[in-house]
Amino acid sequence: MSTNINSRLAKFDELVPSNIPFVEGKLKGHQDRKNYSVIGPGVSEDAKQNVKIAEEHGFNIGAVSAAPMNGSGLHSHTTAEVFVIHAGSWRFYWGVDGTEGEVILNRGDVASFPTNMFRGFQNVGKDEALMFVVLGENDPGVITWTPKLLKDAKDSGMVLMNDNSLIDTAKQQIPDEDKIIQPLKEQELETFDHYNSSEIEKYVIRLNDSEKYFVDDEHYNSNKIINYIDHLNIHNKTFEPYIPHKTGFNLSLLQGKNAHIHEYALEKSEVFNCLDGEWEIQCDGEKVIIGERDTFSVPKNSVRSIKQISDTSGKLFIIRQTN
Q1: Is the dihedral angle over the CA atoms 282, 283, 287, 291 positive or is it negative?
Q2: CATH top-level class for 5-143+183-205?
Q3: pLDDT for 238-293, tens place per residue?
Q4: What architecture is domain 208-321?
Q5: What is the reported pTM?
């Protein structure tokens, strides 16, 4: 293999976060959070955000950690945004004023939020919480914030420019007042979609309900699989998705004490993200081991295999490019 396999390993404890990744960064409830770019730059507004693996994958993967009662304000995306909870309890709420509905997600839960809707999230647990976020496309676009959030951010000294650059007025002058992003007008807000809580629950898969979703792949009785988004093929068996969103990527979960997938190759991007356990990945004759919260990007066209090697059952998220 010409690629250094370790350069494609993103160990969570070695990632470099941004502490003020977005225009809301000085507001109460948004100050004590960290943003990580694992695969691709994501939608960070911090020009100095560290990107662990910059290669285009057809999707972006980031992570967010937050102290209790901290999180993200109301925002919208033009591409897919899928949340994978690794630790803590997160409250997701939505609507331009944040009152249309809410769901609480815990460790191992997955939610795919529709595009063209305002959503925010908050750590409602007692300890620091962590989740990974998968965003659609190589360029997931920029964030659209609610008018109230942009106004409050400006009052705090943070301004977002129309080139998506972030200005901290305590440290630098605004280069051109005419290029400040202006809050959306009422008629523009009317173009966004609305959902109640039961409608959003259709896009949520909870780990506590996993027995309803797990499918055995009938391979040595060792593998259980939840396929969340888009079709998945393992050991010549195709798994249908539970969430009908078209995101440009497949997301699934492999679980088992002796869970494994025999050698195969893919032309498109594939990434493994470990929820728990310890996983050995063979890749063109080289080996890498990932543990809880670690991520590994497999080189395209390489021959790879996976096996769970810890004494207890493990869980591994698989993200595959489909666009």
Answers
A1: negative
A2: mainly beta
A3: 999 999 999 999 999 999 999 999 999 999 999 999 999 999 999 999 999 999 99
A4: Sandwich (2.60)
A5: 0.96
Please state the φ and ψ torsions of residue 287, each to the nearest 5 degrees: -130, 140
- Please state, in angstroms and rounded to a whole number, the distance separating the CA atoms of residues 168 and 71: 20
What does the alpha-carbon distance between residue 182 and residue 165 come to, in Å, rounded to a whole number?
14
DSSP-assigned letters across all residues of 83-135: EEEEES-EEEEESTTS-SEEEEE-TT-EEEEPSSS-EEEEE-SSS-EEEEEEE
In angstroms, rounded to a whole number, what is the distance separating the alpha carbons of residues 172 and 277?
A: 46
Q: Are 16 and 3 in contact (CB under 8 A)?
A: no
List CB contacts of 300: < 8 A, sequence separation 6 or more. 266, 267, 268, 269
CATH 2.60.120.10 boundaries in the chain: 5-143+183-205, 208-321
- Ramachandran class of 313: left when φ > 0, alpha when ψ lies in -120 to 50, beta otherwise: beta
Distance of alpha carbon 251 from alpha carbon 92, whole angstroms: 20
Both structure tokens of 304:
């790879």
| HSE, side-chain direction, 13 A CA sphere, residue 180 | 20
Find all residues with CB under 8 Å of 172, minimum gap 6, and list them. none
- pLDDT: is 218 or 312 the higher one? 312
